[in-house]
Records
---
Amino acid sequence: MEITDLTPAERRVWRAFPLDESVDFREGADDDPESGGSWGPERTIRAEVLRALLLDGPTRDGEVAGLKLIGARITGELRLKYGAVEHAVRLRSCHFERTPQLYGARLRVLVLSRSVLPGLTAGALHTEGVLRMTECRTTGPVRLAGAQIAGGLFLDGARLGTPDTRCEEPLLQLNHAVIGADVQAKRLVAHGQLRLNEATVAGQVNLDDSALHAPGGIALHAENLSVGNDLHAMRLRAQGHVNLSGARMPRHLNLAYARLSHPGGQALRASSCVIGELWFREAAPVEGDVNLRRSQIDLLHIRPEVWPDRVKIDGLSYRSLAPHLPAEERLPLLEREVEGYLPASYEQLTTAYRAAGDEAAARTVQLAKLRRHRRTLPRYARVWGHLQDVTVGYGFRPLRAAGWLSALLLTGAVAFALHHPRPLKSGEAPDFNPVFYTLDLLLPIIGFGQESAFAPRGGYQWLSYLLIVTGWILATTTAAGISRSLSRQ
C-alpha cells in the first residue's frame, strides 16, 4: 500500500508506526467510543491500512516499530488470521465496526483497552506478552478458545453482551486456553456464559465484584479448570449455573460475600474438585442446589445459613471447618442431602471435629448418625434402637444409664422398705435390706444374697419382674454402647 492512497488521518498513523509513537484522535479524555460510529473521516482508519502496517509496514534502523492508536474509528474487518506480527498492537478507546479476525495469529502484545467491538475472533491466538481488554465493551462473543497467552489476560471492568440480546454462544470462550500469568477480570459484567473448560492458568483467576447474568442458563462453565494459585470471586453475583466440576486450585476458591442464584437448578457444582480452601465467608444464602460430591478440600469456611435446602455432598472430604460451631448447628446440613442418609458424611463431620479437638461434638455427630440410621430401618427393627437411645444414648451418653439405675434403685428401695417381701425360709433368711434387695434385682451379674432369700407378692412381685427386665436391658445396652465405643477407638 502506498502512502499516497491514504487519508490524512491514516498518514498520521503510517508516519508514527516506525517510531512506535502514539496517535491520539480523541477530542477529550472523556470521549466515549460507544458513539464512535458517528466519528468523521478525520478520525477514521481503514482496517486494511492497519493490516498492511502490521504485516509489512515501514521500519527505521535503530527504532522499534509499533502500532499505538487511541480514539479511532476502525472500518472494515481487521484480518490477521494466521498472521505473524512482530510489533506491539495497541488500539485503545477505538470503535470497531466489524469483529477483528485474529484466529491463529502470532502477536507480541495485543491491547484493546476501553475499545468497543462487535466481538473478537482469536481462537488459537499466540501472544508473547499480555492480552489487555480492560474496560472493553463487546456486543458479541470473545473467542479465545485454545489461545496461548504468555502474559496475563486483563478484562477488568469489561462488559460483554447486552441485557436485551441473548447470545447463542458463550460470550467469553477460554476453553483449552493456556495463560502464563493471571486472568484479571475484576468488575466484569457479562450477559451470557463464560466458558473456561480445560483452561490452564499459571497464576490466579480474579472475578472480584463481577456480575454474571445468565438466568436459567450457565453463568460460568469451568470444568477441569486448572489454576496455579487462587480463584478469587469475592462479591461475585452470578445468576445461573456455576460449574467448576473437576477444577484444581491448590490455594483458595474465595466466594466471600458472593451471591449465587439459580432457583430450581444447581447454583454451584464443584464436584470432583481439589481445592486448598473454599471460602463462603459472609456469603448470601445460596439459591439453588450445591454439589460438592467427591471433592477434596483442606478448609471449608461456610456458615450453616449459607447452605441451600438441597445439597449433594456424597464423598466430600475436608480436614477442617470454619468457623468452629457446635455440632447441633452443622448437623441439619446432612439432613439436606438429596440422596438421603449417607453414613460417610457423618463420619467426615466427626473426623473434622476430632481434628479440632472437640470430642464432645464428635460424639454428638455419631449419636445423630445412629438416630438417622434408625429412621431407615423397618418399624419392628427400630425398637432396639429406641431402647439403646433412651437408656445410654447408643453408648455416647453413659451417665444416662447411671441416672436410670439411680431412679430405679430409689423406686425399688422405697417400695420394698414400705412393704418387706416375705422370706422364703423363715429363720434362715438374712436381715432384709431394701437397697441391696433392689440392687440384686437390677444387676444381673452381681448378687448380694437378698433376691434368693425373699419373695414379694402381688403388685410388688410385678415390680420385681420389671426391675429384673429393666436391669437386663440396661446391662445389654450399656455393653453394646461400650463395645461400639471401643470399636471406634
Note: The radius of gyration is 37 Å.
---
Amino acid sequence: MTVTTELNVSELLDKASAKTGLTDFGDDWFREPLDVLVRSLNTEAALSPLGFELTRHRLTALLADRLRLRALQRAHPSILDIEVRVAAEICGLPRTGSTLLHRLLSASPQVTSTLSWEVAYPIPFPGEAPDAPDRKRRAQERMQMFAQLSPDFGDLHTVVWDGPEEDVLLLDRTFVSMSYDSFYRVPSYGDWLRSTDQSPAYRELREWLQVLQWQSPDRGLPWVLKSPHHLTAVDTVLDTFPDCKIVMTHRSPVNAVPSYASMVRAMSAQYSENIDPVRIGQYWSRRFAMTLNDFATARSARPDRFVDVRFADTVSKPLEVARQVLDELGLPAGPADDAAFEAYLTRNRTERHGSHSYTPTDFGLSEDQLERDFAFYSEVYL
C-alpha cells in the first residue's frame, strides 16, 4: 500500500520544538543526513499508514532529543569536559557473534557499556529520581510494543531492557546510521551513508557518551561498544577514539548474510507491506561485500588497532575468548572478571532464544555465489 502523505523535514523540526519548548538544534550539519533520509523514505520505502505514523513519531522523538542534548549542555557546560575512553568497538558483519561477545565483555567490572534503556532515553526526564525509574519503565513499555509489532524479532536477537545494547542507537539521533537501511528500503540513503564523512556523527557519539557518564560519575571506566555500523566508518572510529581498538568478529558470509537478510525482513515488515526478500538479500550481499573491501583498506593502514575473533570460538569457548580480548585491550582478566563472565553465561542460558529457519535461496542468493563474492574476505580471515 502506498502512503499518500509524505514526511516533511520542516514539519518534523517544528513538531520537535513544540514537543520540547526548545528551538536550538545546535550545528545544523545534521540537516543533510536528515534531508537525504526523508527524501529516500518518501520515494523508496513504500511506508504503510502505520509505518508512516511510526516513522514520523520516531524522527520527531530523535529531533527532540537533539534539542534536549543542546539544552543540557548549556545548563551543564562541564559535560563537554568529561573524558571519554573507548577501549573497543566490537564490529563485524551482523550475525557473527558480536552480540554474545559484547554482552560477555560488558559483564567485566573493568569496563562499561551502553544499556538498552539509556540508548532509548539518554537524557533525564524533568524531575526524575536518580535511578531513572520513569525512563526504565518507558523503555520496558517500548520494548513490549516493538515485540508486538515485530513478533519474530525476538527469535533473531534477544533484547534485554536493562542489558548492553548497540551504541548505534545513539547515532540514530545524528541520522547517520545503518539502522535506517536495516528497517526501511532506502537504497539512495544507503549509498549516501557509505560515501559521506561520518566525523560529525562520531563527534556527537562522544557527546552522548559524555552525557551518560555525567549521569553516573562512578562510571568513568573504558567503554566497550558494539555495532556492525562501525564497519562503515572504521577510520573515523579510530580517529575519534584514539585508545579504541576494533574487535572484528568473523563468520562465513555464507551464513551471516542470509541470517541478516532474515532479520531485516522481520524488522522492516512493521513499516511496509511491500517486503521483497530477494531485494533484501541482494542489497545486503552487495553492501557487505563493499564494506568488507573498505575495511581491508582501513585495516592495512593501522593493523595494530585490530583484534580478530572467530564466531566458532565465541560459541565454543566464550570464557577463553573474553579473556583473550580483554588482554588485547590492555585489561588483563582476573578472578572478578571470570566470575562475572560465568554469571553472565548462566543468565544468558535462561534468556529467550528462539530459532528461525531460512535458506540463501529465500533471499535470491546461493551458497556458491556468496562464496565467490566473499572469497577475498574468507581466504584471509576464515
Note: The chain has a mean pLDDT of 93.
---
Amino acid sequence: MNKNSLYVFSITLVAALGGLLFGYDTAVISGAEGSLKVYFIDSLGLGSLAHGVTVSSALIGCIIGGLVSGYFATKLGRKKSLILAAILFIVSALGSSYPEFLFFTKGEPTIALLLAFNFYRVIGGIGVGLASAICPIYIGEIAPAAIRGRLVSFNQFMIIFGMLVVYFVNWGIASGETMAWTNDVGWRYMFASEAIPAVLFAVLLCLVPETPRYLVIQKQDQKALAILTKINGSPEAKAILMDIKQTITMNASSQKLFAYGKLVIIVGILLSVFQQFVGINVALYYAPRIFESMGAAKDSSMLQTIIMGLVNVVFTIIAILTVDRWGRKPLLIVGSIGMSIGMFGVSSMVFSNMIGIGTLIFIIIYTASFMMSWGPICWVLISEIFPNKIRGRAVAIAVAVQWAANYFISSTYPTMMEYSGGLTYGFYGLMSVLSALFVWKLVPETKGKTLEQMENTWRKRKEDQKDSQII
C-alpha cells in the first residue's frame, strides 16, 4: 500500500503542477499591473477601462480554455490535453515578457503592441482554462475513492502555492530596484519566470500514464487494468474495472448531457458561480492595490500580500487534511459563514471609514475561510459529481461558467468600488450567505463514494423527481 500510495502521489504531484501554473499565471498580474498601467495605459493616454481589460485579458482565454476542455479531454485524452496546456503556458510566458518579438520595437509602446501583449495573455488563459478543468478530472479519475478528496484538494494547494511563489518572485524582482526600472523592465522578468515551471510540467507529463477511465472509453482495458492494479492492488482493480465498464457502456440516451437530469448540471454551474461571486479573485488580483488603498506603502502592500498568501497556503492544507474526514458539505457551509463574517466586516469598516489593521484582519478571515472550503472543495466536487459518460462536457461547462463569472467580478470591481466600497464588499458577503444556503439545500455529499456510485446517486434523484411529478 505504501508503494501504491507513493505511485499515486507522484502522479498527482505531476498533474498538480498544472494547478501551480494556474495560480502562477493568474496571480503574476498582481505584481505587474501597476507597471503595465505606466508602460502601456498612461503612455498611450488610455483610461481605466483599457487597464481593466488588460489586467483581466487572460480570463478571456480562461473562458475559451474551459469551453474547449471537454472536447480536448475527450478527443486527445486527459494527459495529452495537459501537455497542450503546458505548451500554451510556455508560449504565453515568453510572449508576454517580450511582446515586441518579430513585429515591434522594444521601448516604443503602441496600441498594436498592447494588443499583442493581451494576445499572449489570452494564450496563457487558454492554458489555464484547460488545466483548471482537466487537472481535477485527471486526479479524480486516478485517485482511490478513500483519498480522492485529499488528492484533488492538493491541486488547489498547488494553485495557492503557485500564487504564493509568484508573490515572492514579483517581490524579489522589484525589491531594491527603482520604480522606473520595474516599470520598464521588471514586469518582463515577472512574466518570463513562468516559463521555468511550465517547461518542467511539460517534461514530467511525458512520464505519467493516461487515466484508467479514459483508457476504458478508448477500449484499452488491459492498460486500464494495469494502472488500476498499480493504484489499488489486484483484487480491487478488477472490481473497479468492471464498475467503470458498466458505467461507460454507451447508448444514445446515456450520452445526452441531461441524461441524469438537469439538477446535476445546475449544481455544477452554481458551484462555479458562487465560488467567484463571493469575490475571492478580487482579493487575489487586486491585493496590493487594496492594501495601498488602506494606507500601506508600496513595499508594505506587497509584503501584506505575501502574508495573505501564507495564510492561504496554511488553510488550504487544513482543507486537504479534513476533506475526506469531515466531508465536503460541512466544510463548504463553515467556509461560507466565515467568508460572510469577513466581507461584512470589511464592508462595515469601509462605511465607518476605519481603514487599518482591523480591515486586514477581516480580509484574512475571509481568505482563510475561502481557502479551507470553497477554494479546494469546489474543484473536488466538480471532479466528482458528474457521471463518467458526461464528465468531460459537464466539467467544461462548469469551468467555462466559472471563468466567465471570474471575469465579470474582476472587471466590474473597479467600477463598483468607485460607486461604493462598502456596498461592494457587502455584496460579496451576501453572496457568501447565499452560497451556504445553496450547499445546504442542493449539493450532495460525495465523501468516500466512487465516481460510479455518484452516477447512481444522480440517477436515483432523477427517478425520485419523476415520481414526485407523477404524484
Note: The two ends are 50 Å apart (CA to CA).
---
Amino acid sequence: MQNATISVQQIRTILLQKNLLKELITPQEWAYTLPESMTGLNFTSLCYDSRQAKKDTLFFCKGAAFEQRYLEMAINQGATCYIAERPYEAVDAFGIIVTDIREAMAVIAPAFYGTPQEQLVTIGITGTKGKTSCAYFARAILAKSTNQKVAFFSSEENSVDGRSFQAAVLTTPETLDLYEMMAEAVANGMTHLVMEVSSQAYKTKRVAGLTFDIGVFLNISPDHIGPVEHPTFDDYLYCKRQLIRNSRQMILNRQSDHYPLLRETCDVHHVPFITYGRSEADYIVQDGIDPKSFTITAASDVLQVTGLYQLGLLGSFNHENAAAAILAACLAGAHASDAQTELPQVVIPGRMVVLEKNNGAVIIVDYAHNYLSFQSLSQLARQLRPNGRLLFVTGSAGGKAESRRSDMGRALSEYADKVYLTSDDPNFEDPQAIAAEIAASITTDHLHVVYQMDRQAAVTAAIAEAQAEDIVILAGKGTETFLKVNGQKEPYPGDLILAQRFAVYEQ
C-alpha cells in the first residue's frame, strides 16, 4: 500500500463540503478559515487509539466513553492535532472541531486512503441471521472465479489478500480500519470485497457514505435491542434498511418479515432488486433429495443460475443463504459452475458443526443466539432425530441485546425438551440473572430447565446424558475459547473442543 497523506487544507475543504466543520482551534485563537499556524499540517496516519498515535497522526476523539486523558496520551506519543466534537483547550495541540465525529471519520478516511471502495466490486450482506454463512458462500464462489482476488470482512475473520485470514474484532470494522483494510486489499490486487454489514455499522455510521455495488438482505427479526444497541425494533429495522439506500442493486428474501417494506424502500430510492425464496420469487429455492442439496429454478433465468447445488453444511436454511450468495456472486461476475464446484467445500468456523457420539446421539455446535437461529437449528434437529429429545445448552451475553433473552425463552418453549441455562459472556451482569430472564419467557411446563452457570459442566452434562435418538445443541460460543467476565476474557475450553471429546464422527 502506498504511503497515504492528507493536508489540513484538504480536510477543511471536505468538512465544509459536508457541512461538518464547526471551528479550527490553535492555542491562540478560534477560527473558521485556516489559521496561519496550522497551514503546514500534513497527516500520514489516522487513528482513534491513543496507543497507535505518532508524529503526523490526526487523532480522532470518538466514543461515548472518550476521556481527555486519551488525547493527552496521543499527544505524548507525537500527535499534534486532534479532531473532535468539542474543544480540548487545556491540551497543547491544534483542534479540528466538527458537528459529528463519526461522519467526519467516514468522509476523511476514504479521501486519505484514495477511495479504495471505487476500485473494488463490493458486496454487502445484512440480516438477523445467516450473514456469516452467506458471506462465506459468496467469497468461496468469487474466489474460484477471480483466482483468489476476494477481500473478506466478516464477524469471524478478515482477509485483505484473499488467502490469509485474521480473527475479526467487529462484524463490520470501524471506519478508519475499514478503509485502511480496503486500501490494503487494492494494493494486494484484490478485485472484489465481500463483507457483512451489521445494523450497528449504520447506527454508528461506520459505513456512512459507502455505496455497495450489490446488497443482500437475508431476513429480519427482533435482535440487538437494548440500551447500548437499538432502543426499539423499529430502530433496528431502520438501520438494517439503510443497506438498501446505499446499494446499487439489491437481492431480497421474498419470505423475509416486512418484505413489502423492503420492496417499497427499493422502489422509493430507485434501487433495482431481484428476489429469491421458497415461493413467489424471481428465483425459487427448493430442497433436494438429501439434506445438503437444493435446486434453484427461475421463469426468467437472466443470471443463468438454475440447477442443482450441493453444500457441505446441513440445514435447509443454509440453502436460502447459499442461493442469495450465488445470486450475489453471479451479479458480481461469477458463474453458476463456480458455485457448484466450491460450495460443497465451504466450512464455516463454529457454525453448524455436526458431531456424533459413540451411542449415536448428535451434537450440533453453533453460534446461534436469537429466535430465528434457534428456530432453524431446532427444525433441523427434529429432522435429524425426530424420535429423540432436543437438549439445549445456552445463555445470553451481558450488557447487550436484552431482547434476545425473551426470544430465546420463546424458541426453547416451542422446540426443546430440556435446557441447561448457563453462562455466555455475561461480562458485568450476573449470569444467573440472565438465565432467569430467559426462563421467565418459557411458556410450557414440559420443558425441563437446569441452571448450571459453569458452562463446561453444563456442556459436559448435556452431552453425557444424550441417548441414541437425542440431539444436543450447544448454542452461542462456537469455537471461542474464552468467556467475557467483568471486562476480561477468561479461558474456556470451547464448546467445540468439549463436544469433540465425546464425538466419534463429524460431518
Note: The radius of gyration is 24 Å.
